[in-house]
Amino acid sequence: MTQQDCLRRFLFEEAGARGVWVRLQHSLQDAKQHQSLPNDAVDAQFGQALAAVVLLSATIKFKGAMILQVQGGGDLRALVAQSSNERRIRGLVRSQPEVNGETLREMVGNGGRLVLTVESDSGEPYQGIVAVTEDSLAEVLTTYFRQSEQLDTRLWLFASNTHAAGLLLQALPGESADKADWERLEILAGTVTADELLGLDCEDILHRLFHEEQVRLYEVEPVAFQCSCSRQKIAGTLSALGRSELEAILRERDDIEVDCQFCGAQYRYDKVDVEHLLNNSAVDSGLPSPTRH
User: Fold this and answer.
1) CB-count exposure of residue 68 (10 Å: 0-12, 13-18, 19+)
2) 43 within 8 A of 161, measured Cβ to Cβ
3) Closest to 8 in 3D by CA, of 154, 184, 176, 197
4) Which of 74, 100, 250, 280 has the fewest Cβ atoms within 10 angstroms?
5) CA 44, CA 198: separation in Å to the nearest integer?
6) Using the 8-state DSSP alphabet, how is residue 148 labeled?
């Protein structure tokens, strides 16, 4: 039985490098059912983004959320993928009804940028930004690590209508990996195909690509769709609007309705609820959600 909805880390014991493999199936479908994906090309970008953020979340130690966001002025307005440190994922797409282009760069248009944010429960958020000047998300992320982290990193990302999968190689931080070792691993990994990543288990992939290397493979880590929205977090978002804005909305209707962009959950706040949250501003704020008046 093939491995689905899981992540595997591995280490090259003699080459100063590490790797991560992931494949999504049910978690991808659960995330997709709440999004409007106008065509197969956008569908593939959404799957690749979710696979990418899971891979990246496994490269650092944190407790909180990692958020990958691509923004632009093209037909694809926003592509967001999020993973917690426990590999709980969610994502969203905002686009025109019709999205032209086959590559990520074509879809997001001029001025596109990728923002990678780590929101840690124990410290201030970390954020890095890079322009979308390459065709694929994997290439954009490679540029990000070269410019922002100055750490040799390569990703291979593939997605179909049913699955998404990814492979990441990275030089070990703080170690001076031999350049020849890194180049050899990069060349070997570069031979991987979409069919292989989408269809083979991690052990089979590693054997095909790196059977002459000393590879230590770690335990399976499950991945699942789970939205982190809550009434408390939505209340934090509303309170940030301020009293005058909220009271203006309530003059037009009896309550405020908020829909979570990630999972479709609906929250309603009447006048009593709004007064309560304004008087208790010490609430946790989450990602902004649209307000329907």
Assistant:
1) buried
2) yes
3) 197
4) 280
5) 12
6) I
> Per residue in 35-85, pLDDT tens?
999 999 999 999 999 999 999 999 998 899 999 999 999 999 999 999 999
Report the chain's mean pLDDT, rounded to a whole number: 89
* Alpha-carbon span 162 to 199, nearest angstrom: 11
Distance CA 90, CA 67 (A): 10
Based on the number of CB atoms within 10 Å of its own CB, is 5 exposed (0-12), middle (13-18) or buried (19 or more)?
A: buried
What domain count does the chain have?
A: 2
- Which string of b and e fits 194-214 if b means at least 16 CB within 10 Å? eebbbebbbeebbeebbeebe
Crossing angle, helix 271-279 and helix 243-252, to 10 degrees?
A: 180
Separation of alpha carbons 140 and 209, rounded Å: 23
What span, in angstroms and rounded, lies between the C-alpha atoms of 54 and 76?
A: 22
Instruction: Give Cα 255 distance to the centre of its chain.
Output: 33
Provide the β-strand partners of residue 167. 21, 156
Q: Out of 192, 225, 258, pick the residue that ends a domain.
A: 225
